[in-house]
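Cont'd.
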Amino acid sequence: MNQKTGRRAIETKGLEVGYRGNGVVSNIDLVLPMGSFISLLGPNGAGKTTLLRSLARLLPPLKGVILVKERGLEGFPSHEFAKLLSIVLTDKVQPGLFSVFEFVALGRYPHTNFMGRLTESDRRVILESLSMVHAEDLATRRLETLSDGERQKVLIARALAQEPDIIILDEPTLHLDLKHSMEVMAILQELCRKRGITVVASLHDVGLAARLSDQVVLVKDGGILGCGPPEELLERRTITHLFDLVDADFDPDLGYLEMKGSRSRGRVFVAAGMASGAGLFRSLVRYGFFISTGVLHENDLDYHVALAIGACIAGCPPMEAIDEERIEKALRLVKQAPVFVDSGFKTGPLNRLNLELVKRALDMGCTVFSLRQAAELEKYVGRDATKITLCHGIPQLLDSMENMSL
Amino acid sequence: MMDRSISTSNRRHVLLFLLLLITILICMAVNIMLGSINIPASNLIQIIGRHDAVSTNGFIVWNIRIPRTIAAVTGGACLAVSGLLLQVFFRNPIVGPFILGISSGATLMVSVVMLTSISLNIVHLAPFLNTLSALAGAVGVMAIILVIASRTKNPVTLLIIGLMMGYLCHAITSVLVAFAEQEKIKGFVLWQLGSFSGFKWSEIKMLFSFGGMILAVSLGLGKPLNALLLGESYASSMGVNIRIQRLLILFCACALSSMVTAVAGPVAFIGLAVPHMARLGFATSDNRILLPGTILLGGIVTSLCDLVARLIFSPVELPISAVTALFGAPIVISLLTRQRVMA
């Protein structure tokens, strides 16, 4: 992918960072390879910003060493370091009256002469930096007229104008809307993949970090919880612990968080499968229901979502047919729930028995709702189908459940 | 399109500089010609051409008008640049050259000399004594500020310490005023409002050479000042040696305002307003353009204010600070509200 792999952009040994003897994060031993995308994850106040500032030589380390490109930080004259590493911080930047071009030109500082005179090549680099963040058309705009998203791109362009090997960003998507967050992240990924620039960024979005990063660094409780590829590091328990999650849970296969909801409205059993339940689960959780579900194959999307929302699940190994024994287990869950919802899942040889659950739920006296077509339901359930409340779509289901004043 | 817009803004800057240069020359000429005795242009050319300092008009031109004009222009330029440096340094648009207590230090020392009996023995040195004591006070405060600046990292701390020093000096001064005799107080109050009158050629040479030197050093600070506009973290990450630049900027700013205060008293407002006028006039915050811009504009504004101070209620001369504020404040307010941009 790029030739620089294997070399170290940043390495720390026994590092402790903080302010004036007030250690914030200690025992930091990191190896960040050249040309990789590195995300720092951790709760607010864990010390991500402090660590980033120390790596950027803005804050002297309290203990230990930082090596940048295998050289100690003290070894660099300030101009040389500025050509190696640049930053984008969350500090509010209000330089006054500048055009975007002039502002990005400030980043040429370490390259220009005593008076800061721009040469032809400086101008080329400035325009190229702007085009790297897809902001060529902003060049003549006044800085103060930019939106937050445009501003962030221009701040990145300014950092790029230093022509760095490493760029450090503190929460680059802070205050940005979805479109601009995604655009900024795409730009950063492009810088890393196409230009071989090492990107070190603190992020809040675990899902995004998991998708983009070559390495993640987990910062918590004054230490480093882990450093390595997201595939190895970002597991359910690690993330729950990292952020002390109570209301949500991370699923590494979904790559996202699911909300657990208030669970104040009692249990609902959802017969699901074949990805028919994921959206339904989320809606029911939103309305405060506690969900039990089954029988789900463990490779089903529904299974992953159910796991992340903390549902009770009757599971079944992938590719195995659902048998009586598993149905019995599911029925124990049905018994605990006064309401039963049939998600309208597609059936095949492996999950046909799940339809039994609908009949048995009726026998047990559950209130049963179904999202299936009437004809289809009648075919499976027979005459009892009339006892079932049919709903077209999830909103109607939620309405009906509401009306029953559960 | 890109290149064209860059070159048009460059051309605009060049034109503005030319305009300012011509204006400052005209201002100087007018300052020399007008007064209680008006000297026509033809006469002035004669006097300057022949180095005539003997005739009445010649005497006025060479010993009163020219020193005063040079003092006003140079003093204005120094104050304006001092204000610009500190506004960028503190990243605060309402900062002026005297925010760090320079003028208060000078005022304190002058009040000691003017209001107490300490100077009685050397009273024949009075005019020089004012200048020397003001210089001593200003340089004293400047030295304290520089020592503190080399120890503390936080500009806000420095700003607050500067303000506190101002209050301290002010407190002592007011105690002296309370005990002083009535007629001494009037002289002191007038000194506090500043004036460019009564300049000797020796003072002019001092102001012009030292001021010129420090102005020249300041012109070289444009690049690091621009980087500092982004804040110290960004500046440092671009390779600015913060420690050295901080001290250099503070030294230049304090030295410039100290010098002017010593010879002309605390002239208010110029250092605060002229940088804003320059920023809005040139429509940029690029200090490499603003530095020469404020030098010219500072000279123009101050010499015009001095002219008004001399002429408007002639033969009574108004204090220069009254004129600078009376005429300058509305101009700055209108410029800023029209542009809706600060700093």
